[in-house]
Amino acid sequence: MANVTFFGGEQFPLEMHKVRVVQKLNLPPVERRLEAIQEAGNNTFLLKNKDIFLDMLTDSGVNAMSDQQMAAMMVCDDSYAGSATFTRLEDKVREIFGMEFFLPVHQGRAAENILAQTLVTPGSVALMNFHFTTTKAHITRLGGSVEELVIDEGLKTTSSHPFKGNIDLDKLADSIQKTGAANISFLRLEAGTNLIGGQPFSLENCKAACALARKNGIITVMDASLLQDNLHFIKVREAACKDMSIREITRALADQFDIVYFSARKLGFARGGGICIRESAMMERMRELVPMFEGFLTYGGMSVREMEAITVGLDETMDESVIDQGPQFIEFMCKELQARGVPVVTPAGGLGCHLNALEFLDHIDQRQYPAGALGVAVFIAGGIRGMERGTLSEQREPDGTERLASVELLRLALPRRVFTMSQVKYAVDRIAWLHANRRLVGGLRWVEEPSSLRFFFGRLEAIGDWQEKLAAKFREDFEESL
Length: 482
Fold this sequence. Notes:
Number of helices: 19
Number of strands: 16
Low-confidence stretches: none
Radius of gyration: 22 Å
CATH class of the largest domain: Alpha Beta
């Protein structure tokens, strides 16, 4: 653990890298931040980068690449077919995951599409610890459905459970019996459950769940996009794994599954993705879809430069001193916010710091999207862009009624090797100020609501003039320092 204690007793994680390339940031005044979020329809996805100071929307495709990755990009082979670059990536994936077959795709949701096209049929059910937005959309688009079987502790925002992403084994057994194995498209375990705070599952739970699926002839799938955080948590939280290397834990996990897919925009510090497959018959079912939707079998929609970077990035992911950086910075941010009375998801998970919007804004009805409103308010308060992970990220029921999310979170992602400690402390300060003035924040309502994946490009408006009042309060409190 790369923690350092300085004089005065303050302890915080130490960056195990040095900055060699920088990108200029801009911190617009609060008046411009208010204008920008309103122009964006109160949707942080629609903000322009020039108006953002700290972009904590996601870690997808925005992690900093290492000098070794940048160097590797210069030796790529850009042949359309038979590229040596692809062979290097394929060999690295086989080495790490131990699966014979690898199909390249341009990112994680492309893998989800191919998986769904191959395995989902109308009326079938996909069992999982928890869904992800695009995963569920691909399944329901084809007439399937999703059943979430995460342990009850997983939906408690405040907890001490080390593996809140575990699947409930009793619920899994009951669901298999009730649904019938023939009607189950696959069992999917997400390594680092995105929508409930980046919470991990344990190796022990994974083995038990997959054994039960195999016993019933059910295909097992791991979404490994957030695997690096899950690996870190298994290493430090699961007693039986403390003496295992990251590579050994990775192989022990992969050995449980028929299919492992990932977004390299998260796993591998670059932009791309892939599907690892154990059996040739399954590979052949999926292979035809790659040139149809992605590109040829030796690039799958990725540039060869990205593939070289992913190959090195996967190796870096096997380095404990690399992958522990994200979780340590997230834990630090969560603890600093907790010390100031700000409600966050505990224990700190992967991907980012998650604010509990239902508690932060307990005066806002859930049908007025408190997590979305909190995202707007955090941007006004500090130029910080987060991502709503609550009811806005759900899909409406078939009859048009609102499906209320199990949790209402604002995710503040910490991309790897991107932010400095002073920037994290700035975010903590502005969020703490907002918490002290939280009663000024109001709800949101739809102006333009897409029928699917509405959180990506829908537009909303504030209910009342709370945004103007919040901006005025910020100006008043910070006038001397502006």
